[in-house]
């Protein structure tokens, strides 16, 4: 097929040049895999997972991949990255060694294992590049099928750009929606629920997605018969095949060693997806894995002789060689010359990558040795220090860890000697300099971070009364948002036609259309994925998860992908997704949970905002849309019908992020809480005042970040007592809050008694009003807990209740 097509557009000589170029890329990639494994086995690299056996289909994919397109793949795609010009041989090895210089390892600066690929979407100041002028790869993650939800969003962005007008700077992100999102996955990982959830959603949404399944029949040692019904993913997905007047997929099948058919298949897939926004699944079968799954084991342990022989015969590079010879593209001698040169080039690139990695560390090693020699000359522990120097000097390929360990151990020997100050300063400087290579960019370090937003108060009429349902505050603020930001959109279960289950989006779909205010199916993980992918392409999505408890379906995507995106790309990619949900204080196990401890500890890298009312929540949305960071906003379930004042400046007032609010001044004890529970705290505080106990009440407002102005400890300095009230389980979010207050803010300096917590019971909330009362803190619980704490202070004034 390729001959017929190329003969109409290329001379045979041009065609030959193109094929030889492809073959050279494939053989270079293979040599990188082979040499990379050796580097692991010699100890220079920790772990290796390579793309050998998948080279030829990736060449075909690269040919159909255009500027503006996005890849969301997995850790076998090195040949593809080389073919699109985004991975050099030296960069391949820099990633294998974990080089922390982003210039050397542009994929992640050593933060991810080799084989995890990314391109740079951002300029140095955090602003967007023109993504239509480059080939794009979203940053890979290791969890199997974890790349799938994001792929859906990357594809949906093209649909939005094609069909929604008025989006500012759209030309930097899309050429009229003509971009394809290309996904890759191993056959075994198609067993994951995320794969099927994404496939179903893409078929419903009809987005330009081309999904490649690299099928080598195994998942590590487990054969496809244990993985997939009928041992064939495209066979069991036949029901997704589009038919006349139906949505669905175009399903294509191709052998992974057939260069000509692969190119024709990928050209066909690209045409269908790019022009018509129809998703395509390409099942690439009869692939091999010449070195097994990874450097941690050998596939000879689980493949029989017949299978190993077949893999040798049908290795895609071998078959490409035979095809090239058969149609006179190249002679065996010409191919051998390419192979020899590739070995040489890869070896030289490996050496260059290793030298670039190790030489700066060796210089640091020499620097410390010189300092220790100077210190050791006059030390009472000279002999011991000389031993440390000898041991460190003897390490041919030192690690930064080994250098710092030596320095810190020597420091213990000279605590009362002249060299202490110099060595201590060296350790401090070295740690600061080095630590940032491993810890920077968890959150935005640009001028668009959340702390750059100035607080703007709601403006009220002079005669404003608290007579407006909270849900109307949200609704009217969303209306202002969608007018102000044409790139903003919201989607979730029941978010569209009925305006969400609590009417916070009432009338918005009718006003702004089904693409910007959209209903989706019951599929929380891919709702998150839609948001991640669209946010990576310049849109401002708000992904709605109907209830906080349902967030558990999506927590893996939030934790492994969204929360780590900026960190694992060292600030070269971002996804400023806003996640909207509602929680706390309803009735029933699955609608009233507050698993905040789990959430805040799983999603570091995402801000967690816990407004007590809808005006606060609306202000958070307004603030976040001026930032470039992802956040979770948890609205109070029992707040939609509570009355609030109606502001005049919708879309403009902003709730500051990371700043607490003191709701009541007091002198006896500091009560700290957030969200729905604050209403109970306020009620209890009124009752406590009647018995002479004056509580100060602090609304945290956000858990991540936490009280950046350290106002809680200022309150404790006045009251000398602390109670944290929380709806989470014992030791959940309350433990985090205490750690922040006691350890980070040094509140122990001001406490006259034990800081305490009042939480929900360890079980989920039981059904019904009584179930809520006996499962979570009540106003009476708060009253009695505070009273008990004051009883310890003054038993005569506050005699025991029981």
Automatic annotation (TrEMBL):
Query: Which SMART domains would you find in this protein's record?
Result: Transket_pyr
Q: Has the keyword Oxidoreductase been applied to this entry?
A: yes
Q: What is its EC number?
A: 1.2.4.4
Q: Where is the Transketolase-like pyrimidine-binding domain?
A: 468-642
Official protein name in the record: 3-methyl-2-oxobutanoate dehydrogenase (2-methylpropanoyl-transferring)
Extract the SUPFAM superfamilies matched here. Thiamin diphosphate-binding fold (THDP-binding), TK C-terminal domain-like
Name the cofactor(s). Answer: thiamine diphosphate
